[in-house]
Structure prediction request, 193 residues.
Amino acid sequence: MTQSIRILLLSPNPDDADLIGRSLADTGMTSMVTRVEDREAFTKAVVESAPDVIIADYWPNAFDVRGTLDVVRQTRPATPVIVLTESITGAAAVACLRAGADDIVLVPNIKRLATAISDAISRRSPLSRLTTRQFEVMRLVAEGHRTRDIADRLKLSVKTVESHRGEVMKRLEMHGVVKLVRYAMQVGLVAPS
Prediction:
């Protein structure tokens, strides 16, 4: 990647921004890191800074990864979230991934961060082709709602919902609702049940 990556970092530790910047610079990736440490600042920064990627420190006693993913899912669903942590239990790692985190990078393996960022951005790049309304339709389809229910919820005609669903599949180059649902789950657009 030749352009600078805009990173929004959710972490209580000010040293994390320097650690990430140095690690990415060592791989040739330039970055601009903005650090926040609470839900209010994070929610504002997600909207205002338009990050390319969000890195969330895993600190379960405060604003957790699931809360982070909920905010991102509602405001910038095409933006990948990577969890960065010193250590994490297997159950917590599974919970993060099921909630929609794109990857988990352990600080002792921080050299892997540049690859994790590149992969996550690549995996989510097709989502940038969708409109806000198409995201809504895709999310509702992936949650298992029927076309008539989606139309009623969004105050659209059934034909318009079908048109949006068809356009989503075309823009994402997917053939079939099953693949669409699987992709929506994979990128965390659908909250775990």
